[in-house]
TrEMBL record:
<dbReference type="Pfam" id="PF00266">
    <property type="entry name" value="Aminotran_5"/>
</dbReference>
<dbReference type="InterPro" id="IPR015421">
    <property type="entry name" value="PyrdxlP-dep_Trfase_major"/>
</dbReference>
<dbReference type="InterPro" id="IPR000192">
    <property type="entry name" value="Aminotrans_V_dom"/>
</dbReference>
<feature type="domain" description="Aminotransferase class V">
    <location>
        <begin position="56"/>
        <end position="236"/>
    </location>
</feature>
<dbReference type="InterPro" id="IPR015422">
    <property type="entry name" value="PyrdxlP-dep_Trfase_small"/>
</dbReference>
<keyword id="KW-0663">Pyridoxal phosphate</keyword>
<dbReference type="InterPro" id="IPR015424">
    <property type="entry name" value="PyrdxlP-dep_Trfase"/>
</dbReference>
<protein>
    <recommendedName>
        <fullName>Aminotransferase class V domain-containing protein</fullName>
    </recommendedName>
</protein>
Amino acid sequence: MPIPHAESDAFLADEGCLYLDCAAQGPRLRSVHDAAMAAMELTARPWNPPPVTPQALREQLRQRLARLFDGEADAIALVPSAAYGLATAARNLPLGPGDEVLVLDGQFPSNLMCWQARCADVGAALRGVRRESGQDWTSAVLAAIESSPRLRIAALPQVRWDDGATLDLDRICALLQSRGIALVLDLSQSLGVLPVDLARWHPAFIASVGYKWLLGARGLACLWVAPHWRTQGSPIEHHWYGRDAGPDWRFPLAPPTPFAAGARRFDAGGLDGLVPLSMALAAIDQVLDWRPENIATALKTCTDALDQGLVQAGLSDWRSPGHAPHLTALRPPADRMDAVFAALKQDRIACTNRYGLLRIAPHLHVAPADMARVVEAAARAA
């Protein structure tokens, strides 16, 4: 069932402000805010046991997050950041001297720095994909794979973080699989909006933050782990969350306490706060209730309205071709960038300047008609 653009009541907002920066921080749901306040009240009285333990909340969250993938809770690890999850992937995937790791030029640093470090450690090479004039990212990635006989790992997004450009992962992954190349995905700019097709993509690891399109709290992210690594992988840190201590909860000197089932071995320590767990649960429940495919359809009407408005205003070359349904960017000339950004701010339109691009990332608090404000402000400063 389509989502009406009356969902603005579900979010906290300042009247008159048009918030278009979900790619940086998702807008705050009222249900998430209420969950945070209730959890804060509970933590103020630590002598009273909470009605639900942090361990139970973690498992509830794991089960909900799994529904964005294949429904298998054992596949999900809870981590503090996408960077932590991607570093876990870099730590585990085999890589040797002379091998190559593929990334996009200008890729978000969380999915870059861990590979820089890993390549430096083992004598491998990092290969950055750049687009030729008129070339899309998918074609550029496919060409790079074809020309890289030593490629062992491809670390990619589904949607670029700066302008919303999408990669055709179906085509890319088919080529990767034919060559035995491992795939690591950072879905921080798409999970919660775009579908995940594990059966086609066959990734080794997928990481995503929880505070952007999943509308949750900072400090709590997820890591999906392929079956092989759930039994063979080595975690970054060791703590009792990731171990199966049995009913006696004992940790002998020898033998080592066995790992907990599935991807739980990769859980990070310290993720037992009632506040972030409660916020994340309230957020994922709302995302699942709306359904990501419905969210994508609704947000596409907003970005389509923006594109159409730019054409009508004579600013068609300011559009970002091939963008995702939920994420795009304005491309004003360099000499007008500061003026356009200032005009948007003056009209209380919140977006982000990323390397000469004004990123536009709405959620369901925004209606297609709101995009006229963006076009009008941009046209005044053009």
